[in-house]
Design goal:
There is one protein chain. With 372 residues, this protein is of the alpha/beta class. 34% of the residues lie in helices and 15% in strands. A 6-stranded parallel β-sheet has the order 2-1-3-4-5-6, with helices on both faces. A 6-stranded parallel β-sheet has the order 9-8-7-10-11-12, with helices on both faces.
């Protein structure tokens, strides 16, 4: 029964979008625009991340590409969308987009995945044991990018494509980390938002959620005591709490430490908070990659490591992601933060393995190496 379901899986995928496939095939009769770039991101209400970084680079440098951006907010009807897709030489996505996987691309057309995450942490795509290997998903990419040479084979496996289609260019959205004016502006905005952060060493507590999805996402309250943590760190420190957006229940902040523990759950960009951070505390979040590029120390706090690893799994031994200490108990957390430093061999090895090409020139490499 399982083999039968697997065999018909691609048939069902095509059947679901049969009408759109027909519109796309008809639209192929129109000429393909050699400078046409369609950025397609329907899981979001606006363009962001790698797509926005590439778009900004092209426009800033007046490069000869005609960009059309489609999000969930401005998606046209199927006929108009099919025409856009058929006429664009480049279709660029940054997430799971089921509509494009059923399409037979034109000769010379490119479907490029600029995946929103970087590095290789939790297993994704066909790297997961539960993935339906006979699916069409991801498999028609002509190119996909990654953040370092080392993770290229992992991305090839995750997308079900040959490794020669994986182009290590870095992560275009991290180019912003090297924009001194932007970094200074982000820092000042956060200090104005909470003036009591000025002059403090800052620990950012940013764990990921537990659960399967947004409906049951939570963070175990017994894992973290804000009052005890802040008091152990001392008066020189401030703590910023940034829970995953899926987690709706806030961490309790007692009045005794309310002058140096702050909930920044309303901040859209965790990367902006990293600019004022000294030590990041997280567990299984890919924010460790951005944090390493920016140059902060990190502590991995994983009291439920065995349980979490058995569920989804990692590409490397968990200790390889540490960039510093891995702690399994709350009592060991504050001491690890106090002794954490970004200047250590683990951090240098980590950056080399996972984010070696995130140097402020990723958008340039993408344009020069793929679009041109």
């Amino acid at each position: 029964m399982k083999n039968l379901k697997s065999a018909v899986y691609p048939v069902l995928q095509r059947a679901r979008y049969a009408g759109f496939i027909s519109l796309f095939e008809k639209a192929k009769s129109a000429p393909m625009q050699p400078d046409g770039v369609l950025m397609f991101a329907t899981s979001k209400g606006r363009l962001g991340g790698n797509l926005l970084a590439i778009k900004n680079y092209i426009e800033k440098n007046n490069l000869p590409f005609k960009i059309t951006a489609i999000t969930s907010e401005n998606r046209p009807d199927d006929k108009a969308l099919a025409a856009l897709m058929a006429e664009s030489k480049f279709i660029i996505v940054d997430d799971y987009e089921p509509l494009v996987y059923v399409l037979k691309l034109r000769d010379g057309q490119h479907l490029i995945q600029v995946w929103h995450a970087m590095g290789a942490f939790k297993r994704f795509g066909y790297g997961r044991q539960s993935a339906e290997k006979n699916s069409l998903t991801h498999k028609n990419y002509t190119e996909a990018i990654c953040s370092s040479e080392e993770v290229a084979p992992i991305y090839a496996e995750a997308f079900g494509i040959s490794q020669d289609k994986i182009i290590p260019v870095g992560s275009p959205r991290t180019d912003l980390f090297f924009d001194e004016a932007y970094v200074a502006s982000a820092k000042e905005r956060l200090y104005e938002k909470e003036p009591r952060l000025r002059g403090k060493k800052i620990c950012l507590f940013a764990p990921t959620f537990r659960g399967d999805n947004v409906n049951d996402a939570a963070y175990p309250a017994q894992f973290f005591d804000a009052e005890k943590f802040a008091q152990t760190l001392g008066e020189d420190w401030a703590v910023i709490i940034k829970m995953h957006p899926f987690v709706k229940e806030k961490v309790a902040i007692p009045q005794s430490v309310a002058d140096r523990v702050f909930d920044f759950g309303d901040e859209r960009e965790i990367n902006d908070i990293l600019f004022i951070t000294d030590v990041l505390v997280t567990d299984y979040s890919s924010v460790i990659f951005e944090n390493a590029i920016i140059g902060n120390a990190a502590v991995l706090y994983a009291p439920d490591l065995a349980e979490y690893d058995n569920g989804r799994g990692f590409y490397y031994d968990y200790s390889a992601y540490a960039c510093g200490d891995v702690v399994g108990s709350f009592d060991a957390l504050a001491p690890a933060v106090l002794s954490a430093t970004a200047d250590n061999p683990k951090m240098e090895e980590f950056k080399k393995r996972f984010v070696s090409l995130c140097d402020g020139k990723s958008s340039e490499r993408f344009v020069e190496g793929i679009l041109k």
